[in-house]
TrEMBL record:
Keyword Transferase: yes
Coiled-coil annotated spans: none
Native source species: Candidatus Amulumruptor caecigallinarius
Cofactors: Mn(2+)
Gene field: leuA
Broad enzyme group: transferase
Name under which the protein is recorded: 2-isopropylmalate synthase
GO molecular function list: 2-isopropylmalate synthase activity; acetyl-CoA C-acetyltransferase activity; manganese ion binding
UniProt xrefs under InterPro entries: 2-IPM_HCS-like (IPR050073), 2-isopropylmalate_synth_dimer (IPR013709), AIPM/Hcit_synth_CS (IPR002034), Aldolase_TIM (IPR013785), LeuA/HCS_post-cat (IPR054691), LeuA_allosteric_dom_sf (IPR036230), LeuA_bact_synth (IPR005671), PYR_CT (IPR000891)
Pathway connected to this protein: Amino-acid biosynthesis; L-leucine biosynthesis; L-leucine from 3-methyl-2-oxobutanoate: step 1/4
Xref: Pfam families: HCS_D2 (PF22617), HMGL-like (PF00682), LeuA_dimer (PF08502)
Residues engaged in binding Mn(2+): 14, 202, 204, 238
Region annotation (Regulatory domain) ranges: 389-498
Any one Gene Ontology cellular component term annotated for this protein: cytoplasm
Assigned protein family: Belongs to the alpha-IPM synthase/homocitrate synthase family. LeuA type 1 subfamily.
Length: 498
């Protein structure tokens, strides 16, 4: 029997802090559901006091996810903790993650304070958080550079105050693996009440040692690891989930394992990379494009004779299908079904028929259909059930002329048409839709992204529409970005028009 290691995923908090990686609430829910399917134990969903968007994401993820504990970050500040507790109100299992800097550098320069005061503030934060939830994690920020004797006093005091998990972050990615392992061992041996809590690792990758440090932490007694998909995160990133999970699976002699369904690693990695616009480096361990590619003749020969000659992991174990069929306009329904299955989507026969129709239309416009396209198509059949559908859209636009759009909508089977002008094709299309759906709604956010590359590519559109004081998110993807924009607008409207 292996010892159980808990996976705390912070892709949506530490990962999402990276400039350019921000997700809207709909995308965060998509990622949270993928993390749930992957089998993570805890999802750190955001830092609710930091912005209304973060607050809302924690609320919505709490509603959308069933099994993992939903965690919200705070500083050791009462208002942060109250706001986090409020954001977590719908979570089936909830945790508040509070903490403070404990290194001398943080104490002196960040807080202009002293060790005793910081210890008391930590204790007070934990005691306050326990008024709202039973599960409280405490982080000793910059623990990597904190003196071990003082760190042990802080850990003991916050456990006595009710912390269930104590996080030992190497915030700056400074530690050597031996040093970090020794720190965890020191705490295991010198904190008298350590049996009442779990120690957690949280390693940054500034010197490229995040995974090594995390594994050393685990070997020395930590039983929770804080990780992100693809190792994304502040600066050089956080420890990569896939690397820790597969290190433990490859080294069974360590006798430690997680609840992760590793066959979902590749598809989750692709989803996060594509939604966050963060390409995975080709030689990245486990999930890089070249992680299982053998280019030298000697290696190819060896692998063909016996895979284990040059591979320590069977690519199928992490969901990489080496024989994956390239999908084109000539691919059949079975090939699409197989690819959807590999991506973790199983459609009923009727939905599969609809998806296949969409697939053929897209394959006519694009030479090769990739996994992002397939994921987009799989989302399309949901729209068939929408009350308001886009029947047709015609747009005239160009340089030196005013854009004009004619729109046809099908609202619960009834047909409506309108035409309007605008300062561009999207504006004209939205204005025409507004002439049919006469509600006081405001477009708050509008984001267009190309999924891959090439002028025949699919454009993804996200919109946030404000109606009656609430925000509704819409999403659509199409090779025509004006059509995608109109569909995303309708997708949002469908969420409040009944
Ligand atoms: O790196 C760090 O110290 C953190 C804490 C806020 C947990 O992300
Ligand atoms: Zn961090």
């Amino acid at each position: 029997m292996s010892d159980r290691l808990y996976i705390f995923d912070t892709t949506l908090r530490d990962g999402e802090q990276v400039p350019g990686c921000q997700l809207n609430t709909v995308e965060k829910i998509e990622v949270a559901k993928a993390l749930e399917a992957l089998g993570v134990d805890v999802i750190e969903a955001g830092f609710p006091v930091s912005s209304p968007g973060d607050f809302n994401s924690v609320v919505e993820i709490s509603k959308a996810v069933t099994w993992p504990t939903i965690c919200a970050l705070t500083r050791a500040v009462e208002n942060d903790i109250r706001v986090a507790a409020d954001a977590l109100q719908y979570a089936k299992r909830k945790r508040i993650h509070t903490g403070i800097g404990t290194s001398d550098s943080h104490i002196k320069y960040k807080f202009n304070s002293n060790r005793e005061d910081i210890l008391q503030r930590g204790v007070a934060a934990v005691a306050y958080a326990r008024k709202f939830v039973d599960d409280v994690e405490f982080y000793c920020e910059d623990a990597g550079r904190t003196d071990n004797e003082y760190l042990a006093r802080v850990v003991e005091a916050v456990i006595a105050a009710g912390a269930t998990v104590v996080n030992i972050p190497d915030t700056t990615g400074y530690c050597l693996p031996e040093e970090y392992g020794a720190k965890i061992r020191y705490l295991m041996e010198h904190v008298s009440n350590i049996d009442k809590a779990i120690l957690s690792t949280h390693c940054h990758n500034d010197l490229g040692m995040a995974t090594a440090n995390t594994v050393m932490g685990v070997i020395n007694g930590a039983r929770q690891v804080e990780v992100t998909i693809n190792g994304i995160g502040e600066r050089a990133g956080n420890t990569a989930l896939e690397e820790v999970v597969m290190t433990l699976r490859s080294h069974k002699e360590l006798g430690i394992d997680t609840n992760i369904n590793a066959t979902k690693i590749a598809s989750t990695s692709r989803m996060v990379s594509s939604l966050m616009n963060m390409p995975v480096q080709p030689n990245k361990a486990i999930v890089g494009r070249n992680a299982f590619a053998h280019s030298s003749g000697i290696h190819q020969d060896g692998v063909l004779k016996n895979r284990e000659s040059y591979e320590i992991i069977d690519p199928k174990d992490v969901g990489v299908d080496e024989n994956s069929i390239v999908l084109t306009a000539r691919s059949g329904r079975a090939a699409l079904k197989h690819r959807l299955h590999t991506l973790g989507i199983n459609l009923e026969p009727e939905a599969l028929d609809k998806a296949y129709e969409q697939f053929l239309k897209l394959a006519d416009r694009k030479k090769e259909i990739n996994d992002d396209d397939v994921l987009m198509i799989a989302g399309e059949h949901h729209k068939a059930r929408s009350r308001i559908k886009l029947d047709f859209l015609q747009v005239t636009s160009g340089v030196g002329i005013h854009s004009v759009a004619s729109v046809g909508l099908d609202i619960a089977g009834e047909k409506f048409e309108a035409a309007a002008s605008g300062n561009g094709p999207v504006d004209a299309a939205i204005n025409a839709i507004k002439l049919i759906i006469r509600r006081k709604m405001l477009l708050k956010e509008f984001l267009i992204q190309a999924i891959n590359k090439g002028s025949n590519d699919v454009g993804k559109v996200h919109m946030t529409v404000e109606y009656d004081g609430a925000h509704y998110n819409g999403f659509a993807a199409n090779t025509d970005i004006v059509a995608a924009s109109a569909e995303a607008f309708l997708d949002a409207i469908n969420k409040f028009v009944r």
